[in-house]
Amino acid sequence: MSRIVHVGAAQLGPIGRDETRKEVVERLIDLLQQGAEEACELIVFPELALTTFFPRWFTEDISAHDHFFETEMPGPDTQPLFDEARRLGIGFSLGYAELTPDGHRYNTCILIDRAGRQVGKYRKVHIPGHEHHEPSRPFQHLERRYFQESMDGFPVFRGFDGIIGMALCNDRRWPETYRVLGLQAVELILIGYNTPLWYAPDPDHNALQGFHSHLVMQAGAYQNGTWVVGVAKGGIEEGVEALSQSVIIGPSGQIVAQAITSGDVLISAHCDLELCKRYKDTLFDFGRYRRPEVYGLITERKGAIAPPLDPAPGGLDQ
Ligand code: ING
Q1: Whole-prediction pTM
Q2: Burial (0-12, 13-18, 19+ Cβ within 10 Å), 30
Q3: Residue 185 to residue 165: CA distance in whole angstroms
Q4: Ligand 1: does its nearest atom lie under 6 Å from the Cβ of 195?
Q5: What is the model's pLDDT at position 205?
Q6: Domain assignment present for 172
Q7: Residue 210: CB within 6 Å of ligand 1?
């Protein structure tokens, strides 16, 4: 018996600093309509899909960037996306910068079902980059200045005849993200990302960005028996090149669809959620094989601590 969800990954090319929400939403609707033509049921948009990746710029007063944030979702500019999705009977996930009524700033993603109802919301846990201006950099990565770390962890939501989780960009590099979702029986993880190709002194680092992005998502998928959809905002945006290479990955860890261009493009796959059982019920039967009683360090310790230089005689039997 199969349980297929036809998922579309709606990759975005660059969004200019002065591009209006209206112009961006028209691009999102165009990708949604392409999805409808392919009979997609769920469209996954990238992280911060409504604006340029503004954490690349320093502002002394962080509220100078508030125009990049949404204070309501949907708001007047995004309502057309919600209306068209409901008209087409397609659900979607959308990443955006959230400014709450009590002044909290999150890097957020929501999940909307095919009837237009909000099924879930996720706020980014792992916030990369730096808090203060570092003028020596070719560009800034000030997510830690503009967003606060969510304390809500990684929830799952029922929808699209399955169990769905969300994560955002840097979250995909941390195995804990997938495992916490895996321990809630997740079957489909939706991950939007903005990954600048850092002009680091080490050119190999930039060349490995695509490999690392796929590596972590493929491992997360396989080790937790889940589908993973990674969707980029890529291309050269305001002079900074970001990784494209959006993918749809099966619970085997295999890439079943990949974007090969860096602009707005839709890739899609028929994701059979029943395939997850092939891994959840065998190799990765957590209830049978995991050993949380010896994993204590994973939650007790934040940073790595090396053993003493002059160790006492080693081995468990000393
Ligand atoms: N971006 C990047 C990411 O984790 C980054 C930050 C870039 C980390 C390159 C390491 C190397 O893909 C976001 N938005 O988290």
Answers
A1: 0.97
A2: middle
A3: 10
A4: yes
A5: 79
A6: yes
A7: no
Over residues 200-211, mean pLDDT: 82
107 falls within a domain: yes
Given a contact cutoff of 8 angstroms between Cβ atoms, the answer to whether 95 and 46 are in contact is yes
Q: Is residue 246 part of a domain?
A: yes
The tokens 């201006």 sit on which residue? 133
Per DSSP, what are the bridge partners of residue 269?
Answer: 7
Long-range CB contact pairs, 206-215, < 8 A, 24+? 209/243, 210/243, 210/245, 212/173, 213/172, 213/243, 213/245, 214/245, 214/247, 214/249, 214/255
The single residue listed with the structure tokens 């997850």 is 276
For residue 53, how far is its CA from the centre of ligand 1 (angstroms)?
12
95 close to 107: Cβ distance less than 8 angstroms: yes
Beta strands in 118-253 (DSSP E): 118-123, 156-159, 162-168, 188-193, 227-232, 235-237, 240-242, 247-249
Tokens 């050993």, located at residue: 291
The dihedral sign for the CA sequence 257, 236, 99, 131: positive
Tell me, using a 6 A CB cutoff, whether residue 145 lines ligand 1. no
In a domain, 305, yes or no: no
Number of structural domains in the chain: 1
Q: For residue 217, which phi and psi values (nearest 5 degrees)?
A: -75, -35
Catalytic residue numbers read: 47, 124, 169
Task: List alpha helices for the chain, DSSP H.
Answer: 21-37, 79-88, 143-146, 175-182, 203-207, 209-224, 277-280, 286-289, 297-300
Structural domain including 282 reads: 4-300
Q: What is the pLDDT of residues 251-262, one digit of tens each?
A: 999 999 999 999
Q: What is the pLDDT of residues 93-127, one digit of tens each?
A: 999 999 999 999 999 999 999 999 999 999 999 99
pLDDT at 179 over 90: yes
Q: Are 124 and 76 in contact (CB under 8 A)?
A: no
Find out whether 86 and 115 touch, Cβ atoms under 8 Å. Answer: yes
pLDDT of residue 206: 83
Q: What is the CATH number of the domain that holds 30?
A: 3.60.110.10
What's the confidence (pLDDT) of residue 293?
A: 98
Residue nearest to atom 7 of ligand 1 (CA): 195
